[in-house]
């Protein structure tokens, strides 16, 4: 070994674990590897010696390459870019990254399907995740949305059961309609979501040609403390495109990663995907004037009454360098907000606030927010430390608060919503359920061909031999309550009498 090789290495210099610039092969601990082709054996034919530390380390690392996949949204693709404010909404929020037109913030975005495994086809009828991490100067803001603007259920206590019903049968490992229709027959609040899932938009052409939505109601709050409920919406500048059944079979049959490839290739070709961000806002002082509850996630806010206001644009102009580091290890969480943006009492959002960080501590470990893709790009400081895989370099002697030795104090106070909260302890459903009106309106907004495709998909799903007469009748009654002719049409194709 040439001793000159080490002359430039200052062993006391701090080298981040990502330093990957050795001119020769090494073990993880930095020892030179002089042969990466053959195992260390006794004689030319073996056996292999346990003292071949490099071999053991290489196999052991390989054996642990996979981490648990996300319990939902396991299949996804990500890309980087920026968000730019185009319209001033500083009257609504004191969020620093929204402070003025022209302000740009780096982002990473992950698109996903929901139900199936990490390697599943991207042509399945399934909602698509649309999660954006804004690396702002005041810490990260995660807008963890979907391509549809509503959700199946409105209380997170039902989420694990809902996911179990949608996931493959635990016995056969096949996704089965009878289980899905059984579960949701107890939940007419899901009808609105099904007018998206069973519509043409249920299979987006790829990730570039789809809408996005924050789905849950959040709160914007300005410097003087005035709050507005807000819903966020992304609209692709290249328009929305979907795959009809036969197209999906063709596309998925020739490439089960077509949407990941489409995203990667278009960025590599300089054809950068772009979305415009819009908001809708409601003044909480007037929240009772609607026939729906503004914090009910199964409802859209009619755009003719609550118009879309433009805010900014999202441009994805950089592919990720490493799928594991910037996709598998990426962790979004609806609880990660910045001053000027707060949650609402939306019961589904409230449960999401807990669930994401909890699963990520399990999936990635307690220090998952130190991983480069998840760490804020702004400075941070607290005494949360140690734990598995903590790789932060720290040398302070005061790791408690308060202390007269540590000069770091509290941040400046920022406004949060101020309503006085009162009430008995209760477990109940919300007052204004209104489950049927919006699904019916949406169905009637489809042209006749689109209505026909919607009906066919329902007839097909309800024709699953394991769907009982009772479940079929419930679904027909639900659709009839949304739109009488829709219920009648599905019933007559199934040779049933609508019980309207
Ligand atoms: C109470 C309801 C919900 C619960 C408990 C829940 C829970 C979860 C969990 C545990 C994950 C996996 C996170 C990870 O391992 O990193 C996840 C991912 C995700 N969820 Fe939800 N979810 C809920 C509702 C929703 C809703 C309403 C939306 C849409 C607004 C949504 C969008 C997403 C997205 C986009 C991801 C993937 C994030 C990524 O790309 O890594 N979820 N959810």
From TrEMBL:
It catalyses: 2 H2O2 = O2 + 2 H2O. It is an enzyme of class 1 (oxidoreductase). Its EC number is 1.11.1.6. SUPFAM superfamilies: Heme-dependent catalase-like (SSF56634). InterPro entries: Catalase, Catalase_AS, Catalase_clade1/3, Catalase_core, Catalase_haem_BS, Catalase_immune_responsive, Catalase_sf. The active site is at residues 73, 146. Catalyzes the degradation of hydrogen peroxide (H(2)O(2)) generated by peroxisomal oxidases to water and oxygen, thereby protecting cells from the toxic effects of hydrogen peroxide. This is Catalase. The lineage of its organism: Eukaryota, Viridiplantae, Streptophyta, Embryophyta, Tracheophyta.
């Amino acid at each position: 070994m040439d001793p000159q090789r080490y002359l430039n290495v200052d062993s006391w210099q701090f080298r981040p674990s990502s330093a990957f610039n050795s001119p020769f092969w090494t073990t993880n601990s930095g020892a030179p590897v002089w042969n990466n082709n053959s195992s260390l054996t006794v004689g030319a034919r073996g056996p292999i010696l346990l003292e071949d530390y490099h071999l053991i380390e290489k196999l052991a690392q390989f054996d642990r390459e996979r981490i648990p996949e996300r319990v939902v949204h396991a299949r996804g693709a990500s890309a980087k870019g920026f968000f730019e404010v185009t319209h001033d909404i500083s009257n609504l929020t004191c969020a620093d990254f929204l402070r003025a037109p022209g302000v740009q913030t780096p982002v990473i975005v992950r698109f996903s399907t929901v139900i199936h495994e990490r390697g599943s086809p991207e042509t399945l009828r399934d909602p698509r995740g649309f999660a954006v991490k804004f690396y702002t100067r005041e810490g990260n803001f995660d807008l963890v949305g979907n391509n549809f603007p509503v959700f199946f259920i409105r209380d997170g206590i039902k989420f694990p059961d809902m996911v179990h019903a949608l996931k493959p049968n635990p016995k056969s490992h096949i996704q089965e309609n009878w289980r899905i229709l059984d579960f949701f027959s107890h939940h007419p609040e899901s009808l609105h979501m099904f007018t998206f899932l069973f519509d043409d938009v249920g299979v987006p052409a790829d990730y570039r040609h789809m809408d996005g939505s924050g789905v849950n109601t959040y709160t914007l709050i300005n410097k003087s403390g005035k709050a507005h409920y807000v819903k966020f919406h992304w609209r692709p500048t290249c328009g929305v495109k979907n795959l009809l059944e036969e197209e999906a079979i063709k596309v998925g049959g020739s490439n089960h990663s077509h949407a990941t490839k489409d995203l990667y290739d278009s960025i590599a070709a300089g054809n950068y995907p772009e979305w415009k961000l819009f908001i809708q806002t409601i003044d909480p002082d007037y929240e009772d004037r609607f026939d729906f509850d503004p914090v009910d996630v199964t409802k859209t806010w009619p755009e003719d009454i609550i118009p879309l206001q433009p805010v900014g644009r999202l441009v994805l102009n950089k592919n990720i360098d490493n799928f594991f580091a910037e996709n598998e290890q990426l962790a979004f969480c609806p609880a990660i907000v910045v001053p000027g943006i707060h949650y609402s009492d939306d019961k589904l959002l409230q449960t999401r606030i807990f669930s994401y960080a909890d699963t990520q501590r399990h999936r990635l470990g307690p220090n998952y927010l130190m991983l480069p893709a998840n760490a804020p790009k702004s400075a941070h400081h607290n005494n949360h430390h140690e734990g598995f895989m903590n790789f932060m370099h720290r040398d302070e002697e005061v790791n408690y608060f308060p202390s007269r030795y540590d000069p770091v104090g509290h941040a400046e106070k920022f406004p949060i919503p101020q309503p006085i909260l009162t009430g008995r302890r209760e477990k109940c459903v919300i007052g204004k359920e209104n489950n049927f009106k919006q699904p019916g309106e949406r169905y009637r907004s489809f042209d006749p061909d689109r209505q026909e495709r919607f009906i066919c998909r329902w007839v097909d799903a309800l024709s699953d031999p394991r769907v009982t007469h009772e479940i079929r009748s419930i679904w027909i009654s639900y659709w009839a309550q949304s739109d009488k002719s829709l219920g009648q049409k599905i019933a007559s194709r199934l040779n049933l009498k609508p019980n309207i």
